[in-house]
WbqC family protein
Amino acid sequence: MRLAIMQPYYFPYLGYFQLMAAVDAFVILDDVQFIKHGWIHKNQILLDGKAKPIHMTIDHMSQHRTIRAHERRIDVQNERYQLRLLEHAYKKAPSYADVMPLVSRLIRDDERNVAVYLGKQLTEMRNFLGLDTPLLYASSLENDKSKRCGDLVLDLCHHLGANHYINAIGGRGLYNKERFASEGVQFDFIEMQPVTYRQAGHPFVPNLSIIDVLMYNAKQDVRQLLDAYTLV
């Protein structure tokens, strides 16, 4: 069984869903430290040819508490602002009519727990893309919660019966493949191949939110982009 483990991100980029598509089970790592400067609560869209931040409002962000211990602030004014940004950015995009109702519903969702909300968001995006990878919350698993980094990943692999672990390329310096092999787990990094698509005539801006990919590509073309990766 192929396994991936990732923190939940806010409307993450294409590579996140490539990882989800590449495995048989995907663990949402919700019981680890909240990183303020990461992608848990924000991402970027394309507005007037440039990357523009979008974000959700969170009460009392702290790197001393886990992701699951945080709550969203239900901020109607911010929701309206985000939706206006998205309308301005993508109202002329070819898939706007298909994608915007989904994105609007997710932004307006009233779930307060950050981990549960992001898990719901990832689940709906997964379903929209036609993937069937099971999503599991790390907090719901009965593994050894005291372990960290490579030890935690190996423990989860053994706990779930995975013999092949796939990690985002950004973690390249954190893991020792030989260590995993010695415990019967194949280890690979997933690397996104060069991906470009037409963005309303602007010079291409890479690695934006999955929202941008969906707005400018038909669903069947997005499915092809999900396979545009290499395991290294």
In short: The longest helix spans residues 114-129. Residues 42 and 73 are 14 Å apart (CA to CA). The first strand starts at residue 2 and ends at 6. The chain has one domain: 2-231.
